[in-house]
Amino acid sequence: MGLEILSEKPPSPPHPPPPTAAATRKKLTLIPLIFLIYFEVAGGPYGEEPAVQAAGPLLAILGFLIFPFIWSIPEALVTAELSTTFPGNGGFVIWAHKAFGPFCGSLMGSWKFLTGVINIAAFPILCIDYLEKLFPVFSSGAPRTLAILLSTVFLSLVNYTGLNIVGFAAIMLGVISLFPFLLMSVIAIPQIRPHRWISLGQKGVSKDWNLFFNTLFWNLNFWDTVSTMAGEVENPKKTFPAALFSSVILTCLAYIIPLMAVTGAVSVDQSEWESGFMAVAAEMISGKWLKIWIEIGAVLSGIGLFEAQLSSCAYQVLGMSELGVLPRFFGVRSKWFDTPWVGILISTLITLSVSQMDFTDIVASANFIYSLGMLLEFASFVWLRRKFPTLPRPYKVPLRVPGLVVMCLVPSAFLVVIMVIATKIVFLVSGLMTVGAVLWYFLMNYCKSKGWFVFANGDENEKGDETLSS
């Protein structure tokens, strides 16, 4: 009889599951994020000229020096704290939802999304406005309409290829579009006459405060739009604050240096300071070669602005679907590029639908709706400090609640001014959009109650936050 020895092999470890798309997705790093924020907000000195037309050189210079402290820095501080505390796609929608519940989250999402797509529509128009100076065929009619349509569709397809590509493209576009302004500012130094800086404008020309404040606001807002992509950023708790504060410095310098150079070196009729005058001034200072370079830079800047803001709108739609504000299918990603193609498609279609609006109406309507959203955002910021006082905050504005109230009151007062000076048509359009946003919330609730669409359970995140804060 033999002794049978059974050799027992240890069970082989289970095969690890294949990495998910979220795990393999390339995340945004610091430098691409800085330039994406830069293009969310500015994209260069293009568009600052009407401030001089509206109020003269001195007030325009003071506006671009002071306004960042009144508006840009407080908004960037709010974004830095809340984006690192709630680092998910959706940004300000999540903040309003956490602070005041799903109705305010949905209302915030509608306001900011409409602001974004209206704003996006302005950038192909700006690009074509500069191109028509080189190619007059784009000045009107079918060629202009076709150029706006095709450029919008093409740039949306580029956005579809991935946020990482868009981020690195933003670096290239930013450097190329900024360099001619830096060169112009250096060449202008011998021609500068400092007394021109203190001019309040031509005698007999009344101040256009509506145009002045809307120009400042449009050129220096949208710092919070990048928050909708927080879930796509590598180590957002450290990267976001560094990127925000770096982009604030970059943006302010990109506005003030060329503005002081041109107002000091060039003396023209105040009415000539309309959008696109920087290119004319470049020719006066150095020659036609620099004018053409700046006009090409304007087109590249418009491309960067379009791509950055379309990304924010698309990822906001994705975040709203993850939060349960929109049905799940709104958050579907591409199998090839892992981008939120449904969000990109919806944003592009709405952008095309408003692309034939007058540019002034586009800016004013976007500013008004954005102002409503920002008032809700500031209220959410303060209330979240009070509601979740012990919630871990990787970056925290070094003020207590009363100090935060004061910090938010100053920009809030400016928001009220922007809304009060709006025209009747802007009031009407904004009112209709707000009514539509409210009806949309109740429509989504009705669809959810009937089970017509599948929604994510947004309440789970709320419970998680309450656990952390207890």
Explain what the structure shows.
With 470 residues, this protein is an all-alpha fold. Helix content is 70%, strand content 0%. The protein has helices at 21-24, 30-41, 50-55, 57-85, 92-100, 102-134, 141-160, 163-188, 209-220, 236-265, 277-285, 288-323, 341-354, 359-387, 401-420, 424-450, 459-469. The termini are far apart.
The arrangement of helices and strands along the chain is HHHHHHHHHHHHHHHHH
Largest sheet: none
Distance between the termini: 69 Å
Mean pLDDT: 84
Helix percent band = 55-70%
User: Regions with pLDDT < 50 over 5+ consecutive residues?
Assistant: 1-10, 12-23, 462-470
What percentage of amino acids are in beta strands?
Answer: under 5%
Overall strand count: 0
Shape: globular
Key descriptive features of the protein:
470 residues, mainly alpha, globular, disordered N terminus
